[in-house]
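Model it.
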Amino acid sequence: MSSADNSRAEIVAAVDLGSNSFHMIVVRAVGGDIQIIDRIREMVRLGAGLDENRVLSLEARMRALACLGRFGQRLRELPSGAVRAVGTNALRQARQAGDFLLQAEKALGHPIEIIAGHEEARLIYLGVAHSLAAGNSQRLVMDIGGGSTELIIGKQFDIKRRESLHMGCVSISRHYFPDGAITADAMRSAELAAALELRPIRRLYRQLGWQTVIGSSGTIRSIGEVVQQAGWSREGITLESLRRLCEALIAAGHIDKLILAGLSPERQPVFPGGVAVLLAIFRALHLEKIEVSDQSLREGLLYDKLGRIRHEDVRGRSIYSLCARYHLDLQHAQRVETTAHKLFAQASQSWQLTRDDQREILCWAARLHELGLTISHSQFHKHGAYLIENSDLSGFSRPEQRLLAVLVRGHRRRFPLDAFESLPLIDREYAKQLCILLRLATLIHRGRTTKARPDIGLTVKENRLKLTFPEAWLTKHPLTRMELQQEKRRLGEAGFILDYND
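Modeled.
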C-alpha cells in the first residue's frame, strides 16, 4: 500500500442524521487522537416532519435530501469503509421510510444505518468519554436530542447503565408549545411529561450514583451558552440558572419574543422543550450542576469507526458476551465458523462477496447458531433469531442485528425466504448466499465430532452450488449423505441447485 493510501485510510467521517439537525464531521486520525479537517451542521428538523401516523412529510424529506446532497459532495471521494452514517430517533420512528432511505443513501453516497436507542447511548458516551481527563470517578452523561434523551452511567470507557427515553426538544416543543406560546401551565405540563418518562429509572440511577455529570448535544450546549452569557452561571449549568431561564421564557410569552444572548434563531423553536426536559432531569435525579461537553454522538461514531479499522471492534466483544451469557459450546461453534470461513473464501469471487463485513457477519452467525438451545431444542433456530434480534448488542446497527438474526433463523430446516423480506432490498441476495454457506457448515459438523473434517471443495455459479468430497467419504458417512439429500431438496424449493459427488 502506498503512503497516499495510508493517509487516506486514516481519514474518516461521521454523519449524524438527528431528529433536529444533521451533522457531518471529517477527521484525520493521528496516533490515538483525531484532528478535525471539516465540519458541517444543518438544522433539518426531520422529527418535526413526522405526522400523527409517523409518516415523513414531503417537505421534511426534501430538506433532508438537499442537506445530504451537500454532505455527499464532500464525502463522495472517501472510500465507503471510511464513512459511518447513522439515523436516530426520527428515522427509528418513521413508517414506510424505505424509499426515502434509498434516496438518502444515494444523495450521501454512503450507506446509512438506523441505530437503536441503546446503541445511540453507547456512542454518545464513547464520544464524551474521549473528551474527559483520565480518572476513576463514575460519571452520568446525558444527551437531549430532538426525539430522544439518553442517560448513561459509566466509569472511564465502561458503561454501567444506559437508557434512551422517548422525549426530546422537538417532540416536547411540538406537544406543549405548538403555537409558540410559552405559559407557566405549558412549561409545567412539559416538565411533568418529561418527569413521567424519567420515573421508571430515577431510583435505580440515584442508587448507582456518580461523582460528575456531563451534558452533551446542541440543546444542552445552547442552554449553557444562554445561562452563562446572562450571568446566571459562571460555568456549566446549575439548577438555579435553569430556574431563572425558565422564568425568562415564561416572561417572554412567545418563542418569537425570545431575546437571549447565546440562543441562535434556528434553535429558538425547540428551545422551550429542551429546557423543560433538562429541568425535569435535574429534579428527578437531584442534580445541582452539570458540566457541558463539546463532544457527542458523531465523535463517538468516529472513535468507534477507528476502532473497527484497527481491529478493536466492539461488535466482537458483544458476540463474545452473548456466547458467555448463554454458555454456548464454543469449541463446536469454532469448528463451524472455521468451515463457514473456508466456504466463504471459495464462493466469494463468484458470488461477489468481497466486503469484510459480509465475512464477519457470517462468522458471528456461526458462533451464535446454537444460541436458541438455551430455550429449547425444538425450533431452536427460531429461538436464537429472537434472542439476537431483541438483545442489546453494542456496536450493531438495527439492520446488522436483523441480518444476523435472519442468518441464524435460516441455518436449518426449511429455507425461510419470507424472513429475508424483512431485510433491505440491497442486502437480500447476499444474505441468502451467506445463509446457504452457514447451512452447509452446520450440516458438515452436525455429528459434533472433534476429529478434523475432510477438505471439502465448493464451487458456485449464480444459483448453482457443487460440493466436492474426498473419494468414498460420503459412502463411509451415510448420515451426512442423507442430510445432503434433504438439503438439496430444501434449497431447490428456494431456487438454488445443490450438487455433490458420491
